[in-house]
Amino acid sequence: MHPSLLQNISQPRDLKRLNSAQIQQLCGEIRQFLLDSVSKTGGHLASNLGAVELTVALHRVFETPQDAFVFDVGHQCYTHKLLTGRYKRFGTLRQLDGLSGFPNPNESAHDAFIAGHGNTALSVAIGIAWAKKLKGEPGHVVAIIGDGAFTGGMVYEGMNNIGKLDNLLVILNDNKMSISHNVGALASYLSHLRTTNGYFTAKENVNSFLNGVPVIGAPIKSALQNSKKVIRRAMYHSTMFEDMGFHYFGLIDGHDEPELERIFQTVCAQPGPTLLHVVTKKGKGYAPAESNPGNYHGVSKFDLTGIPDPEVAPAESFSNAFGRTLSAAGNTDKTLCAITAAMKYGTGLQFFSHAHPERFFDVGMAEQHAVTFAAGLASKGMLPVVCIYSTFLQRSYDQIIHDVNLLHENVVFAVDRAGFVPGDGETHQGIYDPAFLSQTGMPIYSPSNYEELRHWLPILLSHEMQGPRAIRYPRGGENKALAKYGCSGKEYDKLIFTPGAKTALVSYADEVEDVLAAAELLAKEGIPCDVYKLVRIFPFEEELIRDLSAYPVVLMAEECVACGGIGEHLARALQDAGWQGRYIHRAVKKLCLPHATVPQIKQATGLDAAHLAEAVREADPKGEKTL
């Protein structure tokens, strides 16, 4: 048995001491380590298994942090983390005070930029590359972009602005394309030919010669270039990249580490910008992930002999309760359409897509297009439902304002993963949507259990309700403590009423559980509090404002940013009604949330029961305790 190599890699330079046989052994060790480690911590598995050789080859040729690696998205960065001094801490992945699941410059100098959302790497890489040129700094910038990111428009915006950056290398990590044997063999041969120094030398010699031939040199050169493009179009279908200024090379076997090294060394000695089309197998080395990589994209802790599918919503979840209800509504309303952005299973839309395939649209990683596309559908009498995670919906804010809200288009927003989300940290929290959606004035509903979701969603889908509206719900299943309250059909409920209570505690969605627990703590101390649960969180019913105006103290708690959140709207509504009591708003003030469990995040933000109770104690009017 060979001695372990991975545990002795503390920095990328350690790779350069290994021979080819050791590199092959190292790649195997990395794959096995990722399987063992991610099965204990959870994380993104299939994409990382597919990027092992690619990442090793990059670190063998380039030298971070002088050379900058920018990932899109950071799902494929685990091997990079292992090779840049984080092997011993990998067991803390996605845990409180542990390693982030994404690249983050605050964690390591080898991480050039944060990368939790897609489509961003090329624009970031272009910015870094230009900064290097303007400052006279050495080094290449390498953008590693998954093929899924090419479904979003920002990548093409970046490609349109690459200029003449000779220090930029873009790697298209294609883990979906199926290549037939003949085309693949021919493409591999041509790729090998074009990535030799001899190819570049011959090309430059011909160009130099023709440039020196008077009168006929330029026409001959143009004819040769046009012929080359025609041939390449037939074999590669790659002229889009070259027309936008790249030198394109592909298709390249992303698991042939020695060949990857050779190509990296060759193309980086030539003028750029360069795009390498690398083909990898998602889930490489783990048969279940190879055969069904989508199911192994992001996983919770699992037994290597069998794994749940966390990216596909579990049998009992808000996502699936929503999806089944929407699909049923589509049976009777033929105008109903469902739109998602590369998250069909994650949003529970598999039910609608199977029942109504002609009215289901997955637009890829293109949230802006999804919203404006919905506006176009609505303008012609259709009823589109845009189903997007909260953290990704924020990418389409301009389209919500301009394309949907200004014309009061009939669009329903279904906001999944609303509120705190465990594991992924600051890049994936659903804490902004109540603030930015409420600025438009649209009605927003936030059910706290399945029964409420199943009651209110059909109402939002009714054609009697006009204009944009939103329904938001958390990740995973319903809270048992909140499920027992069922659904009253009212837009807000008074869950606890105690005669003589001077304090009202107000919240919505999952945070209601912590408010109820805080009320229980305070009741034991002789401080009675009434508890209000909002279902329609904005705008407020007049009756709600009248009810709350009767209390000397009102505390509002929410898993939302404090600035612009629902709590600020409630404070303004009470003030406008003439209320002059003590108002306490508990929300998210520190926006960079830790990657941790939801209870840990609540504790860190002061939204757990203990912190809420303490806030009420501090505000309790003297002598108002009842014994």
Radius of gyration, rounded?
A: 28 Å
Coarse structural class = alpha/beta
Helix proportion range: 40-55%
Provide a count of the helices: 25
Please state roughly what percent of the residues sit in beta strands, choosing from under 5%, 5-15%, 15-25%, 25-35%, 35-45% or over 45%: 15-25%
The strand order across the widest sheet is 9-8-10-11-13-12-17
| Oligomer designation | single chain
Arithmetic mean of pLDDT:
85
Number of strands: 19
Taking the sheet with the most strands, its summary is:
7 strands, mixed
Shape: globular
- Note the gap between the termini: 73 Å
Point out poorly predicted stretches. 177-187, 234-238, 623-627
What do you see in this structure?
- This protein is α/β, with parallel strands linked by helices and 627 residues long.
- The protein is 41% helix and 15% strand.
- The chain is built from 25 helices and 19 strands.
- The strands form four sheets. The protein has a seven-stranded mixed sheet, sandwiched between helices. A five-stranded parallel sheet has the order 2-3-4-6-5, sandwiched between helices.
- Helix 19 (450-461) links the parallel strand 12 (444-445) and strand 13 (469-472).
- Helix 5 runs parallel beside helix 6 and helix 13 (318-332) runs parallel beside helix 19.
- It is globular and about 90 Å long.
- 48% of the residues are buried.
- Residues 177-187, 234-238 and 623-627 have low confidence and may be disordered.
